[in-house]
Recover the amino acids of this structure.
């Protein structure tokens, strides 16, 4: 792992190839899983502040889930997450042309919302684990993303580059420049990745 600022970054983020392939996965990450999308502590307030705009894109079942459960819930592991529709899809998930995506992001993309979507969704398949004084960034392997791995290999798209904007949104331009510097050092062999 490499430390950049207060973040410890797994070598996987530099070497794994990844590129979302909605034509194959259909955005099923908005539906699958044991609980909703992880939320930062300030994100439920950002959803609340934009909810009148977001709700116009939501499914009736999603609006009912928010009305019943709130903008966020605590899951069985004690994490703050988005509520689910009948224990399955994220309450903010919508379906268009056979693909799932996010009502929050749709409102944002149309200029009606100042919150793009939860950073955990924006950064996926990177997952952040918070510790006392630092955060760990790890690659989360999930079988539903196999098509994204294959597409990433075909395109030669490293995970850190595919998620450039999300990483900048989370950590800033300067942090991302340091990440790119570390990636170049790895490519040149100046930083050795330990064998697994």
């Amino acid at each position: 792992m490499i430390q950049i600022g207060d973040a410890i970054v797994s070598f996987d983020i530099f070497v794994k190839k990844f590129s979302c392939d909605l034509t194959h996965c259909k955005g099923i990450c908005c539906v699958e899983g044991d609980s909703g999308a992880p939320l930062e502590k300030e994100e439920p307030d950002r959803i609340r502040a934009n909810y009148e705009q977001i709700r116009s894109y939501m499914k009736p079942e999603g609006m009912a889930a928010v009305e019943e459960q709130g903008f966020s819930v605590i899951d069985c592991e004690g994490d703050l997450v988005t509520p689910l529709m009948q224990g399955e899809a994220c309450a903010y998930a919508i379906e268009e042309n056979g693909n799932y995506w996010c009502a929050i992001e749709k409102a944002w993309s149309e200029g009606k919302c100042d919150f793009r979507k939860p950073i955990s969704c924006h950064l996926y398949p990177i997952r952040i684990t918070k510790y006392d004084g630092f955060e760990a960034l790890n690659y989360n392997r999930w079988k539903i993303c196999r098509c994204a791995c294959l597409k990433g290999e075909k395109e030669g798209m490293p995970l850190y580059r595919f998620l450039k904007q999300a990483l900048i949104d989370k950590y800033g331009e300067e942090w991302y420049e340091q990440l790119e510097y570390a990636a170049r050092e790895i490519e040149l062999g100046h930083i050795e990745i330990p064998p697994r």
